[in-house]
From TrEMBL:
Its EC number is 1.6.5.-, 1.7.1.17. Binds 1 FMN per subunit. Residues 17-213 form the Flavodoxin-like fold domain. GO terms for molecular function: electron transfer activity; FMN binding; oxidoreductase activity, acting on NAD(P)H as acceptor; oxidoreductase activity, acting on NAD(P)H, quinone or similar compound as acceptor. FMN binds at S10, S23, I24, S25. The keyword Transcription does not apply. This is FMN dependent NADH:quinone oxidoreductase. Homodimer. It is an enzyme of class 1 (oxidoreductase). It comes from Marinobacter salinexigens.
């Protein structure tokens, strides 16, 4: 049995009275989740909508609590870090992580960045050792798979695309993913939303199909790995 952690970050709901306002990224992610659960209904599923329920931003008091030795933290400091502890535990438990995000102003929503800021934490998801020279930070988690679902109003943010230098969402997610313990990353992208033309409709349809196909592929692969582990344990 595996654990699937699903993070949505659009401030829009998946379903609205006006369908034109439905979150594209959330609906593509939903296609992945529904397909996965059809194949692996026994898996644990953890869901957070950080767009609708954003985590607290970190603060000076939060940083002070992080750098206070655990045995010396006050009750107030432990309470300050309780959300961070919970979010880190969810990431640590997950085998597969799905993050859906619209591109806001060419980057990730502040709500999603707040989630990462609560999780990327010294001695929890990374350690720091100057003996490593110019690369003192080392992730502590590993072995996870990340699926990134993004939507954007424009297009051409991929490598070699006409807006390659303006797309900071997927590169930022990839950079931070190592602190989630991610070894393998898949991307699903829908573009052209602001144009609302056939290119947009085709891009969304392709992204939905890609989500379904990838969920089938990974869930079956994951199932095979689980079976092999069970056989080895017999």
């Amino acid at each position: 049995m595996s654990t699937l952690l699903h993070i949505d970050s659009s401030v829009r709901a998946a379903t609205n009275p006006n369908p034109d306002h439905d979150s594209i990224s959330k609906n593509i992610a939903r296609r992945f989740i529904e397909t996965w659960q059809e194949n692996r209904p026994e898996d644990d599923y953890i869901y957070r909508d950080v767009g609708m329920n954003p985590p607290d931003f970190i603060s000076q008091d939060w940083i002070g609590a992080v750098f206070t030795p655990e045995e010396k933290r006050t009750p107030a400091q432990r309470e300050r870090l309780s959300l961070s502890d919970t979010l880190i535990a969810e990431v640590a438990k997950a085998d597969v992580i799905l993050i859906s995000s619209p591109m806001y102003n060419y980057g990730m929503p502040a709500h999603l960045k707040a989630w990462f800021d609560q999780i990327v934490r010294i001695d929890k998801t990374f350690d720091f050792d100057l003996s490593r020279g110019d690369f003192p930070l080392q992730p502590l988690l590993s072995g996870k798979t990340l699926i990134i679902v993004t939507s954007s109003g424009e297009f051409g943010f991929e490598k070699g695309g006409i807006r390659e230098d303006s797309g900071h969402l997927a590169p930022h997610l990839r950079t931070l993913s190592k602190y989630l313990g991610v070894d393998t990353v898949y991307e699903i992208t829908a573009e052209y939303q602001e144009f609302g033309d056939e290119r947009h409709r085709r891009s969304v349809a392709n992204a939905r199909q890609r989500a379904e196909n990838l969920a089938v592929e990974l869930s079956i692969s994951n199932l095979a790995q689980s079976s092999n582990h069970e056989s080895a344990d017999v």
